[in-house]
Amino acid sequence: MTSGIRRRVMLTVGAFGAVAAAAIALAPLVGSTPVDLRRALDRSIPFDQNVDAQILFVARLPRTLAGAVVGAALASAGVVFQGLLRNPLATPFTLGVSAGAALGAMLAITFNWSFAAFGISTVPMASFAGSLGAVLIVYALARARHSGLSTDVLLLAGVTMNAFFSALILFVQYFADFAETYRTLRWLMGDLDVSSYEPLITATPLILAAFVVFAWLARPLNVLSLGPDGAASRGVDVARVQRSAFLSGSVVTGAAVSVAGPIGFVGIIIPHLVRLMVGPDHRVVLPASALFGAAFLVGCDVLSRTLMSPIELPVGVITALIGGPFFLWLLVRKS
Amino acid sequence: MVTRQKIMTPQALLVLSVLGLVLAWLPLRANMQAPPQRIVSLIPAVTEMLFAVGADSQVVGVGSFDHYPPAVENLPRVGALLDPDLERILALRPDLVVVYRTQADLKQQLARSKIPIFEYAHAGLPDITRTMRQLGIAIGRAPEAEKVAGGIERALDGIRKRVAERPRPRVLVVFGRESGALRGIYASGGVGFINDMLTIAGGTNVIAQVNRESIQATTELILARRPDVILELRGTSATAQEIATMRADWNALKSVPAVANDRVHIIADERVVVPGPRVAEGTALLAGALHPQAFR
Fold this sequence. Notes:
The structure holds 2 protein chains of 2 kinds.
Chain A: H1 3-26, H2 37-40, H3 51-85, H4 97-110, H5 122-144, H6 151-173, H7 178-188, H8 198-224, H9 228-233, H10 238-260, H11 266-278, H12 282-306, H13 315-334
Helix pairs in contact in A: 1-12, 3-8, 3-10, 3-11, 3-12, 4-5, 4-6, 4-7, 4-10, 5-6, 5-10, 8-10, 8-12, 11-12, 11-13
Chain B: H1 2-33, E1 39-41, H2 44-52, E2 59-62, H3 86-91, E3 96-100, H4 104-112, E4 117-120, H5 126-138, H6 142-164, E5 170-174, E6 185-188, H7 193-200, E7 204-205, E8 214-217, H8 219-225, E9 229-234, H9 240-249, H10 257-260, E10 264-268, H11 279-290
Parallel strand pairs in B: 1-2, 1-3, 3-4, 5-7, 5-9, 9-10
Antiparallel strand pairs in B: 6-8
Helix pairs in contact in B: 5-6, 6-11
């Protein structure tokens, strides 16, 4: 890395990091109930009896952190998938990961499965297993007829798997009763009210490990934007980069969806917005998107729990309501 | 001319009025003589009502989700709210079909086939006995329906009286959440038959001011409203082990009085979630959990 780009990365990470940190610090202070911060932090009251502390640390902090982790994961996975497929419309959900996750969650909810491991409850486990299943099928298909990974086949297989899993979801839903159908529908709208730290403790290491891969991918993805042949001629092992990008991006997405359901639009508007601000270099775009995505989703979650309190709006509805018009504006503005 | 007119008019009037009475009475009489003998019911609560008023032999088809009384298991199933199977319904040659109010397509198709319908929609607790009486009239079992409905109302009154003098705990009624986690918690708002059951059972809903049948309750809401009792209802039975696990999930919210004072009750019984003739028994279960001293 030249010192010029290093400075830019530092500056960008500093600026976006400050935004994300501010969002994470302020979000727990806002909610449907007023919380007395002094009382919440008063160690002399036992935690079990301290309502303010319980609201802050059991209800709000886990969901703020979940918003940050999931937002960072989806936004940066969006960058990786857009770079991998060289398609600005790609999202973390384009290649079937979310549909696989949704099928897993639907099965768990509809048939009332009950198993748990590592402190993770049934639905997140089933959804993560579903996303892994989808990823493996798409990966196997894309590799079947190529030595490397064909992005065309990847895209087609992913889109087809999305449609096929959606059909399976409808098939499963047909056996559900109304309460279950409603719950599965609600799961699809996204929900950050994790109410404990366990889902985060399991998902975060996976996401961080994939972020390490992302850091390594930043430069190759820059070169890949010239096209696979151009990248290969510059000494990039294209197949390896594509494989790493696909698998790490999918793991990040699967982990994020297992925590909060398939929250849409974060993975597409944040990368585009960040590119508008800092340019196309993945070394800057990736960390900036992760931080900005975290801030964005934490902010959306604050809206979701305060706009209509005590009724909570699904966070996926908020991101879509903000994201849809914004994305259209972006399109019109560009052209 | 004048005399003739005088004579004719009262005669004609008499004839006409007798004719009119006969004409009006004939279809009424036909209706009273032939109550529906081939009833199809798509709604679990109404199917239960039909059996409760002794219409067992008149029911020829039931919905996919109907499981009570056990006799329904032997009847043909014809779909349910979202997927009524018109072909199978018509094949049973029903002379009355119980439909849910929102089944617009089905209602149209049945109207085209000239099959009478009985429309039903879930609402509050008083609507259960009201529906039952209307159903009784529609199927020619008004006295039986009156007896059953009156019995339910007396039973509910009895529960109301037994808990009247007792302090009313503030209650959160949960009827669904993700298994093994305090996520996706659905709780009863301030309207609907479950809220009404709670009121009769001697409890006050902590989210009564939300004017909806159900809301998704966040952990923050539950922590802030501090219910004295949490009643978690489910329509299917549960083993002691399952119930213990479900109760233990709530321990994350220790500052909630219900959790701190060990007043989280899991009621795994169909009677608490079906707005049918067993609703008084369901209400008694709620009252027993809220006021154990009064129901020993």
